[in-house]
Amino acid sequence: MNRGLWVLAAMGMLGCGSDDGAAPSGSGGSAGTSGSGGVSGNGGSSGSGGASGSGGASGSGGVSGSGGSGGSGNVVTAASCAQADVESAIAGAGVGDEVAVPAGDCTWSGLTLDKAVHLRGAGKGQTNITLGGNNTLTKQAAGVVRVSDFSFEKSGGGNESKGWTVGGSWKNAEPVVIEKNEFTISGSGLFLIDVVGGVVIAANDFTGEWDDSFLQLKDTQDAEGSWSSADSLGDKDTSGKLNVYVEGNTFYGGTNQGIDADDASRVVYRHNVLTYSSFNTHGWASSPAGVRHFEVYDNQFKHLGGSEPIANQNWAIWIRGGSGVIFENQIDDLAGSYWGQKEEIRFTIRGAEDDRPQGSCANTSYPVPHQIGQGHDGGKAITDPLYLWGNTGAQEISAGWNWGNPCGFTFDDFFQWGRDAVKDGTPKPGYTPYTYPHPLVSSK
């Protein structure tokens, strides 16, 4: 084991994600008071309405279908930010309407948004919502579901306690767009993205502590066959609706697992600014499927040094499975004075260690299902190496065992540069990034 991995193992800090971490417990709040909403005028599309109809940005991709905030365009104003008032306004809104939530301080727990409307606050620091659990956003065939202009906070419950769950059909519903919000969490999780793709998270500000989880992408059932379908990398996502797009956000904290791309997920992580935050994936091991593919590019991974616990950053990017691209990121040297020097990029294959999808050590061989550098062409599993190029700053890469190697394998038998990953500066053949900003982002 190399020096960085030995130190991490000795300090017991190699965990990441639902199978490895823990956080303080706590509780959410209760729902607000009741009231009623009203329809004001014929306001048309809201200020942050986004793309409508069959439009979309030109370039390597566009948005087709009924995206945007079209429809009747009425503005339904909730009587207050109290949960019952907001639920009443949603019930009174039609597809394509804006539900305006006034300024105030309220608590939501168990709120459901399952209608293609734009739920819009009065602005960051104006409409302030404390999240309990069981709030849901569900993709709709009728149009885009959009949430913007709120300040949300959640505390306690550990990183498995989520403030929002996003779900719905991967291929048969329009996207959920979450933009221009502020999220602050403490000892908690925030989003479970329980769908393979068709979610856009843009221009938000996220703040959390060391082990807090901002975004967990995990469709455990994979009912629509992400892992048995060809990839949708870059402009292969011709509609802009097959991947989860996380773009143009700021992240502070979530050092251990700010984003965790897990079962069946297809994620594009681009143009974000991260301070003491990281990008993580899972493979098929403790998780039943692992990430399908990822695109990590044009991000700034900042590490400011320091001796506070949040500066104990063990990696900037940790890949455990699937395939994808990592390019043109700026990565600071992870050399804080809390625990010292760490590798910036890590590759591991847990499926050949203590949690093996192939079963016994004797039955485990290359390739481990869904391991790093594995993909699918729609007919069969294939070797599909991930590519790294054009990254700047610190780029120490470690590739090795992490969970004790109980079978006594040689890592080179499961991972080889040039076969499973390519780092010679060559871009992935045939790859072109999808249009940025995403055409459904209104805050361009």
Walk me through the structure.
With 444 residues, the protein is mainly beta. It has one domain (3-422). It contains 2 helices and 34 strands. The strands form 3 sheets. It has a 19-stranded parallel sheet that branches. Strands 1-2-3-6-9-12-14-17-20-23-26-31-34 form a 13-stranded mixed sheet, covered by helices on one side. The longest helix has 10 residues, at 83-92.
Tell me the layout of helices and strands.
Layout: H1 3-11, E1 38-40, E2 75-77, H2 83-92, E3 98-100, E4 104-108, E5 112-113, E6 118-120, E7 127-131, E8 135-138, E9 145-148, E10 151-158, E11 164-167, E12 176-179, E13 182-193, E14 199-202, E15 205-207, E16 213-217, E17 244-247, E18 250-252, E19 259-261, E20 266-270, E21 273-275, E22 279-281, E23 293-297, E24 300-302, E25 317-319, E26 323-327, E27 330-331, E28 345-347, E29 374-376, E30 381-383, E31 386-389, E32 392-393, E33 397-399, E34 421-422
Parallel strand pairs: 2-3, 3-6, 4-7, 5-8, 6-9, 7-10, 8-11, 9-12, 10-13, 11-13, 12-14, 13-15, 13-16, 14-17, 15-18, 16-19, 17-20, 18-21, 19-22, 20-23, 21-24, 22-25, 23-26, 24-27, 25-28, 26-31, 27-32, 28-33, 31-34
Antiparallel strand pairs: 1-2, 29-30
Secondary structure class reads: mainly beta
Strand-residue proportion? 25-35%
Terminal Cα span = 45 Å
Radius of gyration, CA atoms, in whole angstroms: 21 Å
User: Domains counted in the coordinates: how many?
Assistant: 1
Secondary structure: number of strands: 34
Biggest pleated sheet: 19 strands, parallel
